[in-house]
Amino acid sequence: MRSSKQNIAVIALSGGMDSCVTAAIANLEYELAFAHINYGQRTEKRELKSFNDIANHYKAKHRLLIDYSHLSKIGGSSLTDKNIEVKRADLDNKEIPDSYVPFRNANILSACVSWAEALNAKAVFIGAVHEDSSGYPDCRPDFFSAFEKMVDLGTKPETKIKIESPIILLSKSEIIKKGIELDAPLHLTWSCYQNEDEACGVCDSCALRLRGFQQAGFDDPIKYKIRPEYL
């Protein structure tokens, strides 16, 4: 009987904690092919280091770097436009924050699906989390269901690629617990929106991550300039 590990899955790996845990989940069933997208984000160099470190951890032989830096020219996000300040975390915010990169996940998935079809991969995994920043519009479960239907319509008849977002409905603390359970290399990940040396501890991404570790009862293994209590 053939092992399911002989099937390939493309993982959209930013280098962050969520995509790392997603990779650990995919690793249970698939051979991993890692794709990293440079979309002109402030912390691209640090994220790329995490991408390579995580890919090395999983001994991935399939790796692809994708240049989507045109998204920084389009702008509209504090992650890509340095004229827009990265604001301090507001975990009670119910509005879409200015860290939202317009339609980013559709761009990421399109590239990953193209590569997946060329590799004859069976799935594309993305570490989207609906909790993040009160829910980016391209992090909704319905978005990924609709995208999978579009993939089925826009690829060869014999191509069948699942769009998998296995942690989308989990809280950050549940993601951390899942990562620890699967021995995901969380110490290699990077989540900060604005710093590349020590995580700031006060942007939305740092706050969500720190609160998750605090609620899960574990110490976050990466370095922070400051570590506020977010419980």
Description:
By secondary structure, the protein is α/β, with parallel strands linked by helices. It has one domain (4-216): HUPs (Rossmann fold). Helix content is 35%, strand content 11%. The chain contains 7 helices and 5 strands, in the order βαβαβααβαβαα. It has helices spanning 17-26, 44-57, 70-74, 104-119, 141-154, 172-181, 204-216, and strands spanning 8-12, 31-38, 62-67, 123-126, 162-164. Strands 3-2-1-4-5 form a 5-stranded parallel beta sheet, sandwiched between helices. Helix 1 packs across helix 6. The longest helix is centred in the middle third of the chain and has 16 residues, at 104-119.
How would you sum up the global shape?
globular
The main pleated sheet reads as: 5 strands, parallel
Going by CATH, the homologous superfamily would be: HUPs
Please tell me how large the radius of gyration is.
Answer: 17 Å
Number of discrete domains: 1
Count of extended strands:
5
Give the percentage of residues in beta strands. 5-15%
